[in-house]
Structures are given as structure tokens and as C-alpha cells.
From TrEMBL:
Entry-linked SUPFAM superfamilies: NAD(P)-binding Rossmann-fold domains (SSF51735)
Lineage: Eukaryota, Fungi, Dikarya, Ascomycota, Pezizomycotina
Natural source organism: Knufia peltigerae
NmrA-like domain segment(s): 4-272
Stored InterPro entries: Ergot_Alk_Oxidoreductase, NAD(P)-bd_dom_sf, NmrA-like
Gene3D superfamilies named in the record: NAD(P)-binding Rossmann-like Domain
Superkingdom assignment: Eukaryota
Protein name: NmrA-like domain-containing protein
Length: 313
């Protein structure tokens, strides 16, 4: 183990909680940097926290407030941190500088495989929302002089429920656009988090920058994703195939309109999403860094069945 005292931003998140728990399982002391230190953390009960004195320490910090970031680094004495990418690029620069000035040396950043084909990170246009946010976050760490492992995951297995499912209807409803043409690699956020926790503690490369891609084990059409959800959950979900405009309207109930429009635009790009040669090289990364096979999508759905239930009785 290279780092036995680490700081994790966003431990209430799907990826952040798994990163914190995995770093702990490898023997590191884990500081939990939270906007609200009273919040529950999935997979970590208050009893577990109390019964393992000194193993987990909560510290208040907000990535949008560089002073709080510096305080958290100083208070923890950690040299290694896991962090999400903030949507606010200038706040990310300030946070990275604050980390470096407070004595941090190494960052594991949750980035995105949307940067797979990008050569020059500085050339990514602001209108390419998702690549832009993650390019700016990677650059912030590099420019601050921090050693960086950028973990670049593919399509989260949690996206169908988070982005597409309208649970306020009974039956719950989903609107799909070009669902047969669009291919995804659903990857379990917990697998991503465990990879992050592993590289946080071990720092596999001593170089200034390392990329770790994390992909799901299957390539599935969006249609097959929803067929699997219905089969595994047994839920009656009203699946409608709609045109782009209706799809955007439906996504915009879950996210800002420009992001909904951007994601709908991506769905129109046939066969562009995956670099299959790179996928073949990096498919083994979950096993390589965690020792376990990545979750197949049906198993992910089975563990999250309740997330697909309509909220209306
Ligand atoms: N969806 C995809 O397919 C995909 C693909 C590639 C990469 N990604 C990346 O993965 C991220 C989503 O990961 P996830 O599902 O684990 O997210 P999540 O469950 O929504 O968790 C986000 C975490 O970040 C924390 N957070 C938010 N703003 C913060 C701030 N200003 N300061 C400190 N902490 C803050 C949240 O804390 P609170 O409890 O305070 O809210 C929460 O713990 C995306 O934002 C993107 O960067 C996603």
C-alpha cells in the first residue's frame, strides 16, 4: 500500500461510497469529505462507523469552496484524494490549487470515457458538455502540479433509472429514442468505485498522469437494456419509442435542457460511441484492480430492483 491515509470527496455518491469502502477494506484510514457531514453513506451504517474508531473520519468540505478543500486536506494530513469532477471548471482549478498548496500529492479523479478519442484536452469545446467538464477537471489537476490517475468509466448502469425512468407515473414510464441503434456498456458504479479505491491506495503508476478506463462487460442496445430491466424486475413499465423532440422533453424533466439536447444529439451518432480496439485492451480493468469480475447488467438490476418501482400506489 502506497497511501494508508486518504481523503474521499463525495462519499455519499454511488462511486464515492464504493471508493471509500474499498480503500478501507485495503487497510487505509479514510477521511470522508462531505458537504453535509450528517448525511447517510450507502454501505456504511452509523454502527459500523462507531465500531471502527479512527477508520472513518468525517470532515466538512465543498468542492466549490477552495478554503474548505484546503482545510479538509490539512485536517486529514492525507497525501492522496479521490474526487468527482465539478461542473464548474474554475472552481475545480481553485480546488486543485488548494489541494496542492495544502500538501496533497496524488489525485484519483472520476473522469469519463467520453475523452477516449480526444487528443488535446484544451481543444474540447464547452458545448461538448460531458467531455468538457471532465477535460477541464483533468487539466485542473495537471496544471496544479498534482500526480493524477484519471479513471474514465463508460456508461453507468444507474443511467436508465436516473436519466430515463419516470417513476411518478403508474405504471412507471420510459421514453426511448433510437433504442435499437444505440449501444452502451452498462458498468456498475460500485465496480468503478472499487477501481477508484484501489488506485487511490496503491497508486499503480509513479508517473504524473495515468489513465484507467472502466467499461461494463457487455455491449447492449438501449432496447436490450430495458428488456432486461423488465425481465429481471417483473415490473410493468410503460416503454414508449418516441421522436427526438419528445425524448428531449422527457429527459429535461430529469436534467437541464441543454444537457438533455446534448445527450439526444449523441444518440443520433451511429456506431461512434465505442472504440472497440480500446475496449478490448481495457475490458479487464475491473478484474485487474479489484480481483473480481465486473457485474453483468442483469445482476446490477437484480440488486437495485426497488429503484424501478413506480412511486404511485
Ligand atoms: N453517468 C455516466 O454514465 C457517467 C459516465 C462517465 C463519468 N460519469 C461521472 O460520474 C459522475 C456521477 O457519479 P455518481 O453516480 O457516483 O454520482 P452521485 O451518486 O450523484 O454522487 C455525487 C457525489 O458528489 C458529491 N458532490 C456533489 N457536489 C459536490 C460539491 N460541490 N462538493 C463536494 N461534493 C459534492 C455529492 O455529495 P452530496 O451528498 O452532498 O450531494 C455525492 O456524494 C458524473 O457526474 C460524471 O462526472 C458519469
Amino acid at each position: 500500500m502506497k497511501y494508508d491515509n486518504v481523503l474521499v470527496f463525495g462519499p455519499t455518491g454511488g462511486v464515492g461510497s464504493a471508493a471509500a469502502l474499498y480503500a478501507h477494506s485495503l487497510g487505509a484510514k479514510v477521511w470522508l469529505a462531505m458537504r453535509d457531514t450528517d448525511k447517510a453513506i450507502s454501505g456504511l451504517t452509523p454502527e459500523q462507523e462507531q465500531n471502527s474508531p479512527g477508520a472513518f473520519m468525517r470532515v466538512q468540505a465543498d468542492l466549490l469552496d477552495a478554503t474548505s478543500v484546503a482545510n479538509a486536506v490539512r485536517q486529514s494530513g492525507a497525501k492522496a484524494v479521490f474526487t468527482y469532477a465539478s461542473r464548474d471548471a474554475s472552481a475545480m482549478q481553485l480546488a486543485a490549487k488548494a489541494m496542492k498548496d495544502a500538501g496533497l500529492e496524488y489525485v484519483v479523479l472520476l473522469s469519463s470515457s467520453s475523452l477516449q478519442r480526444v487528443g488535446d484536452l484544451r481543444a474540447v469545446e464547452r458545448t461538448d458538455f460531458i467531455p468538457f467538464i471532465h477535460a477541464q477537471a483533468e487539466l485542473a489537476m495537471e496544471d496544479a502540479g498534482l500526480a493524477l490517475t484519471a479513471v474514465r468509466p463508460g456508461y453507468f448502469a444507474s443511467n436508465p433509472v436516473n436519466n430515463e425512468l419516470d417513476r411518478s407515473q403508474s405504471p412507471a414510464r420510459v421514453r426511448l429514442f433510437r433504442a435499437r441503434e444505440n449501444l452502451f456498456d452498462p458498468v456498475d458504479p460500485e465496480d468503478i468505485g472499487r477501481v477508484c479505491g484501489s488506485v487511490l491506495v496503491t497508486r499503480p503508476s509513479q508517473g504524473q498522469k495515468e489513465l484507467v478506463y472502466v467499461q461494463g462487460p457487455e455491449i447492449m442496445s438501449n432496447n436490450d437494456i430495458w428488456k432486461t430491466i423488465v425481465e429481471v424486475t417483473g415490473e410493468n413499465i410503460d416503454i414508449q419509442h418516441v421522436d427526438k423532440e419528445n425524448y428531449v422533453q422527457s429527459m429535461a424533466t430529469k436534467m437541464p435542457m441543454p444537457l438533455a439536447q446534448y445527450l439526444a444529439g449523441l444518440q443520433e451518432q451511429d456506431g461512434e460511441r465505442y472504440d472497440l480496439a480500446l475496449l478490448a485492451q481495457t475490458r479487464g480493468n475491473v478484474k485487474k484492480y479489484t480481483g473480481r469480475e465486473p457485474a453483468v447488467f442483469a445482476d446490477y438490476v437484480a440488486r437495485h430492483k426497488d429503484d424501478f418501482k413506480s412511486l404511485k400506489k
